[in-house]
Amino acid sequence: MLRVLSRQARKKPGLIPLFFFISLGMGGAGLYLLRLALRHPECSWDRKNNPEPWTKLSPSHQYKFVAINTDYKKLKKEGPDF
After folding, report:
1. From the DSSP assignment, how many helices (H) and strands (E) are in the chain?
2. Were both Cys, which of 7, 12, 61, 71 would link to 57 (CB 3.0–4.6 Å)?
3. Domain residue spans in the chain?
4. Model confidence over 46-64: pLDDT tens digits?
5. Are residues 15 and 4 in contact, defined by beta-carbon separation less than 8 angstroms?
6. What is the DSSP string of 12-54?
7. pLDDT tops 90 at residue 73
């Protein structure tokens, strides 16, 4: 596979930026999926020990990737404890 890509890049050097940006995009998407899988409680990998991990979050937990207008530190809990 890499041999074919290197041959094509040697024949047509205009393809080198295309290969670079495609690999950069695929790598970024893979790293973002890895980040979502490991750092967020919405993904439940261990159903036996912790079946609902999102119930243990505080109301000041920031769920969004970027929160522009919401200050999660000032939020108060609106519902009862279960």
Report:
1. 2, 0
2. 61
3. 2-74
4. 778 777 777 777 666 666 6
5. no
6. -GGGHHHHHHHHHHHHHHHHHHHHHHHH-TTS-S-TTT-S-GG
7. no
